[in-house]
Amino acid sequence: MNTIINTKVPDFSVNAFVDGEFKTISNKDLAGKWTILFFYPADFTFVCPTELVDMADHYDQFKALGAEVYSVSTDSEFTHKAWHDTSDSIKKVKFPMLADKTGALSEALGVLNPATFLAYRGSFIINPEGEIKVLEINDNGIGRNADELLRKLEAAQFVAEHGDQVCPARWKPGAATLKPGIELVGKI
């Protein structure tokens, strides 16, 4: 299996439900900003609303870091709207909800389960140049944590800005970083 880290997000164009409207979102909308693609199995389920609410509760923090969040499932934009309209939890969602009805985007990023035609819980951080810098894929019974995704975004942004430094485990902004070199070998 080949990794997709540092590869470009594939071309795509999907319908979405955002701000009470239906829109078309493509890979061109990701250009020039940090992006979070947040795949989940299906609307009207169990773990999924807890994750989308967690992301909604942190949305302003993602935006403050110059990132846009896009949730993605193989549901239609109509199903996204119905879920948004009927669920008090999902009413909190302000970020675009992408409808990957053909499964093409989920498949291209390696998160589509072909047996169920549902996406696994895939999280992707994409830089302004369209390159995948972080990916994490969970089985569908394992929910994610928006705080950790925020931390990874901050680390990816730091590394992009300070190419000679790297972020150790549990790094947070303001904490010490490492400058790789032979003098560190065996010292950590």
What does this structure look like?
With 188 residues, this protein is of the alpha+beta class. The protein has helices spanning 47-64, 77-86, 104-108, 146-161; strands at residues 13-18, 21-26, 34-39, 67-73, 97-99, 112-113, 118-119, 121-126, 132-138. The longest helix is centred in the first third of the chain and has 18 residues, at 47-64. The radius of gyration is 17 Å and the shape is globular.
Give the fraction of residues assigned to helices: 25-40%
Structural class: alpha+beta
Tally the helices: 4
Strands side by side in the biggest sheet: 2-1-5-4-3-8-9
What is the average of the pLDDT values?
96
Order of helices and strands: EEEHEHEHEEEEH
Distance between the termini: 31 Å
Shape verdict: globular
Q: Beta-strand level of the residues, as a percent range?
A: 15-25%
Q: Tally of extended strands?
A: 9
**How would you sum up the major sheet?**
7 strands, mixed
**What ranges have pLDDT less than 50 throughout 5 or more consecutive residues?**
none
Radius of gyration: 17 Å
Short overview:
With 188 residues, this protein is an alpha+beta fold. The protein has helices at residues 47-64, 77-86, 104-108, 146-161; strands at 13-18, 21-26, 34-39, 67-73, 97-99, 112-113, 118-119, 121-126, 132-138.
